[in-house]
Design a protein that fits this description.
The protein is α/β, with parallel strands linked by helices. Helix content is 31%, strand content 17%. It binds 2-amino-2-deoxy-6-O-phosphono-alpha-D-glucopyranose (GLP). The site of 2-amino-2-deoxy-6-O-phosphono-alpha-D-glucopyranose has 13 residues, from loops.
Length: 244
């Protein structure tokens, strides 16, 4: 695991966006896994700006979304599909056939997880996976209790996660389920980058750094990945002490 301690949130965001831009410069046909959440919003804004200043070409890139809510329309303004269209697809003028979304329409038939895994495999796997972290240490929507070898599947959201995301929904509308890549699916990615910003993530980051392969904090499973980078802003890093 490589840990990058940024001097500001802006620097942390810029580090992550630059890593993605560098990847696309060296490998224009890279397959990128995308996370959602407030943490990622400035990363995508920075990537859009880097795309212009460095004349990045996205035509050969393929994108996979990490997860999606189940139980709301995919075109709901707070769906992850709407999120990524707003923050990345439209600003970068990407085509609809350059991105795959977890197929929530196949959930009822019980085929959604298997189908998504098949698409990822057919694309040659994910070269670079972006990740945020939930306040309870979840990654994607792999809540505490998720197994290291879990694959894309329907998951129940914890009350804590629903509470953290409820401002995106009208009363009583907050989804209870999601379709999420599993821990095993994420660990198959060739390079993983987790960005944590803000005080609300400080406890999860402290736990992550002090525990290994602990289902209570699914992000701990990432530490055994050979190409995992953890990027922290000062607030997210405020409860850890690193001895140099
Ligand atoms: C959601 C997403 C995660 C994201 C997490 C943190 O639960 N499924 O991929 O990392 O929220 O979100 P935020 O960045 O808004 O704190």
């Amino acid at each position: 695991m490589r840990i990058l301690l940024a001097k500001s949130t802006h620097e942390a965001v810029s580090i992550v966006a630059t890593m993605v831009a560098d990847k696309l410069m060296s490998h224009p046909n890279a397959v990128i896994g995308l996370a959602t959440g407030r943490t990622m919003e400035p990363v995508y804004a920075e990537l859009v700006s880097l795309a212009k200043s460095r004349n990045l070409q996205f035509q050969k890139t393929f994108l996979f979304m990490l997860d999606e809510y189940v139980g709301i329309d995919q075109n709901h303004p707070s769906s992850f599909k709407s999120y990524i269209q707003h923050h990345l697809m439209v600003p970068l003028n990407l085509k609809v056939d350059q991105i795959a979304f977890p197929p929530i329409h196949l959930v009822e038939a019980g085929e959604a997880g298997e189908q998504y895994e098949k698409w990822i495999k057919e694309a040659g796997g994910i070269d670079l996976q972006l990740l945020g972290i939930g306040v309870n240490g979840h990654i994607g929507f792999n809540e505490p209790g998720s197994a290291i070898d879990s694959r894309t599947r329907v998951v129940e959201l914890t009350e804590e996660t629903r509470e953290a995301n409820k401002s995106h929904f009208h009363d009583g509308e907050t989804p209870t389920k999601a379709l999420s890549m599993g821990i095993g699916s994420i660990l198959d990615g060739k390079q993983l980058i987790l960005l944590a910003t803000g005080k609300s993530k400080a406890d999860a980051i402290k736990y992550l750094l002090n525990h290994h392969d602990d289902e209570f904090c699914p992000a701990t499973f990432l530490k055994s990945h050979p190409h995992f980078t953890l990027v922290l802003d000062p607030d997210a890093a405020s409860k850890i002490s690193l001895k140099i």
